[in-house]
Amino acid sequence: MRRGFELIVGVPREIKNNEYRVSMVPSGVRVLREGGYRVIVERGAGRGSGISDEEYVEAGAEIVENPEEVFRRADLIIKVKEPQKEEYRYLREGLILFSFLHLASSWSLTEVLLKSGVTAIAYETVQRDDGLLPILKPMSEIAGRLSVQAGAHYLLKPYGGRGVLLGGVPGVRRGSVAVIGAGTVGVNATRMAVGLGAEVTVLDLNLERFRYLDDLFGGRVRTLMSNSYNIETTLREADLLVGAVHLPGARTPRIVTRDMLSIMKKGSVIVDVSVDQGGCVETIRPTTHAEPVYEVDGIIHYGVSNIPGAVPETSTYALTNATLPYVLTLVRKGLKDAVTDDPSLRRGVNIHNGRITHRAVAEAFEKEYTPLVFT
Predict the structure, then answer these.
(1) Does residue 372 sit within a domain?
(2) In this structure, what CATH number is given to the domain that contains residue 55?
(3) Which of these is catalytic: 75, 102, 239, 301?
(4) d(Cα 212, Cα 166) in Å, to the nearest integer?
(5) What tens digit of pLDDT does each residue of 35-86 get?
(6) Total domain count, the chain
(7) Which long-range contacts does 230-235 make (Cβ < 8 Å, 24+ apart)?
(8) Are 183 and 61 in the same domain?
(9) Fewest beta carbons within 10 Å, which of 115, 239, 271, 339?
(10) Does residue 145 share a domain with residue 117?
(11) What pLDDT shows up at residue 319?
(12) What pLDDT is stored for residue 7 in this prediction?
C-alpha cells in the first residue's frame, strides 16, 4: 500500500436501489487532505445527500468520471452498502474495502470477496471491547426510528393496512406495537412508538435492558421475556411488529415463524429491521425503497434492507462521523498496523487473503474460520 500523499482513498457513487447516502463528506475529505492523503470521488457521488461535486473539489478531492477509475486507482475504497453485482468486476487483490457488508446473509457476495483477494472490513462488525458497535449504532438509531414511521404508514387503509392510528384518539383504543429486541434498534423504535402514543411491548432476553427501558420510559412500556409463549401472546394484540434482533456478524435467528402469522390480525404490519442479516421473521425477504412491501397470509411485510438511505441528509453525516476515525487510522498506519493496534477495527475484518476471518460469518455458512494473520 502506498503511504503519505501517495495513498489514495476512493469514494464511489452508491448504486443500490434508492441508496442516496455517500461514504465521505467534504469535511472528511479536508481532514484527509490535511494529513497528506489523496481522495478521489466519483462524479455525482454526493448528489443524493445534497453535496455537490464542487464542494468536494473545494475540500481537496479529485472528481473522476466512473466507478472503474475509482476502484482501479484507490488503495482503500470507502462505501456505504455492500458491492452490487455490477461492481464485482472492480474488486481486486490488495484492495481494502470498508463498507457495510452483512455477509452472513449472502454466500454469493462472500464467495465473490473471497475469490477477489480483497480485504473486506465490515462496518457492522467493528466492535469495541465493551461490545459497542460504533459504526452500526447511528444507523441502527435511524433505522429504529424510521421503522415505526414506515409501519404507521402501511397501517393506513389505502396502503393495505388495518386502518389503525397508532396513537388512537380519546374513547378509542390505541394501536399496539410489539418490538422484538431491546438493543439500539429496539430502543429507538420504542421511543418513536411511545412518542406516537401507542401501546408498546418489548421482548428480549436481557433483564438489564428491561430495567433500562423501565427507567427511560417511566413504566410506559410493557417488557416481556422473549419466548414462544410471550411472542404468540403479543402477536395476537399487535398492529405493528418491529423485528430488532441482532447478533454481531451472525445470521439473525428466526424468532417469528410462518405459522405465527395466522394468529396476527389481518392487515397488521411487520417491519423487520434485521433483514440485512437474514431477518428474525421467517417470511421476510429483502425489499427496496422502490417496492418496499409485500403480503403473506394477509400480513404486510416491510423488508427494506437500507432503511437509513431514505434520509441521506441525516444518515450520511451520522455515518461519516462514525467512520472517519477508522479511515484515518487505516491511512495513517496501513492495514497491518491499524488492525494490530486497534482491536475494534481488527474485529471488523471479515475477509482477508482469501479466508473468512470473522467467526460468526464462517459459522453462518459452516465454513472454515481463519484467525486474522499477516505474513
Answers:
(1) no
(2) 3.40.50.720
(3) 102
(4) 24
(5) 999 999 999 999 999 999 999 999 999 999 999 999 999 999 999 999 999 9
(6) 2
(7) 230/203, 231/180, 231/203, 231/255, 231/256, 231/260, 232/260, 232/263, 234/178, 234/201, 234/203, 235/178, 235/260, 235/263, 235/264
(8) no
(9) 115
(10) no
(11) 97
(12) 79
DSSP-derived pairing of the beta strands 349-352 and 119-122:
antiparallel
Q: For cell 470473522, name the residue.
A: 358
Mean pLDDT over each residue of the chain, to the nearest integer: 95
Q: Is 189 in the same domain as 272?
A: yes
Instruction: Quote the domain boundaries for residue 237.
Output: 140-310
243 with 162, same domain: the answer is: yes
Q: How do the residues of the chain divide into helix, strand and coil, expressed in percent and rounded to 5?
A: 45, 15, 40
**Eight-state DSSP code of residue 234:** H
Same domain, residue pair 157 and 225: yes
Q: Kindly state whether residues 68 and 190 are assigned to the same domain.
A: no
Q: Any catalytic annotation for residue 75? A: no
**CA separation for the pair 233, 238 (Å, rounded):** 9
In a domain, 19, yes or no: yes
Is the domain of 174 the same as that of 295? Answer: yes
Q: Which of the following is catalytic: 75, 204, 276, 342?
A: 276
Active-site annotation holds for 301 = no
Determine the pLDDT at residue 6. 63
**Inter-residue contact 365 to 107 (CB < 8 Å):** yes
- Same-domain check for residues 170 and 278: yes
Give the residue with greater pLDDT, 301 vs 249: 301
**Cα(37)–Cα(5) distance, integer angstroms:** 5
* Closest listed residue to residue 150, CA positions, set 262, 273, 21: 273
Q: Give a yes or no: residue 186 inside a domain.
A: yes
H or E segment and range at residue 78? strand 76-78
